[in-house]
Amino acid sequence: MKLRIRYIFLLIIVSTTFNSLISQDNIDSILYWDNCNVLTWDLFNGEPWDSTDFGAASYIGIDVETSFQSGLPYLSIRTSFSPIVSWKKIPSDPLLIHEQGHFDLAEVYSRRIRKEVDQLRNSNNTNFDSYFNIYDSLYSTYRQESGKYDFETDYGKNLEIQGTWNRKLKLQLHELNMYKFKILLE
Questions:
Q1: Which of 18, 56, 71, 181 could form an SS bridge with 88, CB 3.0 to 4.6 Å?
Q2: What is the pLDDT of residues 38-49, one digit of tens each?
Q3: Strand pairing partners for 78?
């Protein structure tokens, strides 16, 4: 069982975060989502890709750490932004708002994961696979929604649809406010 948990944990870490792109020396440069952490172009310090027409790229992750708390599996979920690999070519206010939307969308899904994990913990479920299935399912949905966001907003160029998404994300963050990240002390 211990080997299986390690394998699943390793698989999730490798398949769902970008942290493998970042050396341990730069781990402190990761910015975690917070109401006060608004993206600015100064945070986009990576090398732009020559092979793309995109104006910017944000490296955003939904990071997970596992532990046991009160005898039950616990997933600590955080939304992260990596300045050292996020980049900009053509900075503009609308594009920055669009990139902030990606950060906010990831936080919405982090909160959804936390909500479902809390429900499992409240039912005293000790099966780690159940917790990881929630993470995998919602992470997959997040990736699809992120693609939909890019498509519908035309990467932030459609200002009207971008505004609609901004309002939608703000509302969802508010509705899921009780599931924002909290440091668990035990």
A1: 56
A2: 999 999 999 998
A3: 63
Please identify which residue in the block is written with the tokens 């006060």. Answer: 36
Cβ contact 80:32 at 8 Å: yes
Return the bridge partners of 56, or none. Answer: 88
Q: Which two tokens stand for residue 181?
A: 């990240």
Record the tokens describing residue 22, joined without a space.
Answer: 């970042």
Let me know: does 162 contact 97? Beta carbons within 8 Å.
yes
User: For the chain, how long is the longest CA-to-CA vector?
Assistant: 51
Contact yes or no for 111/173 (Cβ under 8 A): yes
Strand order in the sheet with 31-32: 31-32, 72-81, 60-69
| Residue 29: other Cβ atoms inside 10 A | 14
Q: 76 - beta bridge partners?
A: 65
List, for residues 39-98, the tens digit of each pLDDT value: 999 999 999 988 888 999 999 999 999 999 889 998 999 999 999 999 999 999 999 999
Q: Name residue 7's amino acid.
A: Y
Which residue ranges make up each domain of the chain? 2-20+28-179
